[in-house]
Design a protein that fits this description.
It is built from 4 helices and 9 strands, in the order ββααββαββαβββ. The strands form 2 sheets. It has a 5-stranded antiparallel β-sheet with strand order 2-1-3-8-9. The chain has a 4-stranded antiparallel β-sheet with strand order 4-7-5-6, with helices on one face. The chain is α+β, with helices and mostly antiparallel strands and 174 residues long. Strand 5 and strand 6 form a beta hairpin.
Length: 174
Amino acid sequence: RSRKPPTLELETFPIGLASTEGIVRHADDRWPIALLHRRVTTAAKRRPLVLDVAGNAYATAFEDRRFKPVTAEEFRQAALSISILSEPTPIRFADEADLLRQLPPGHGGLIFQDGTQRATFLPQVWQQLRAPNDFLRQLQLKAGLTATHWSTTILAWRYFTKTFARGALKPTAT
């Protein structure tokens, strides 16, 4: 039977929030969850959140050049998550040691930038990288820098997320 999709009044959805959509699968006992795809958007797009989530869910599954498109079998076995990102807050720091002191484990996501090199880790990454030093080193590598890179032009922002997962659909703040 054919159903008409619901009408969305886009002006009722928040604008300027960023989202990230993830597709994960159970891998093995050592790594219980393997990230298949993850895409983070920027709030600068200023589009309604519902369009951000829908557009990025599709792009995450089918258009991310780092990964092959998700297959029907992978989709059936995957867990899906959507994280809504808060507005990033700049972190003021004098040097690397000062930045590390301001990164309490498990407390928020981090955006790291030096010039055009930029990367982010969601708060959930603290589950794998529990020490601030490890967290920062891996984020520097993700940004395409060396793990020991430091300069006076580095910028950093902290943000928080509300995450929803397929199944429970109960929001959790991290």
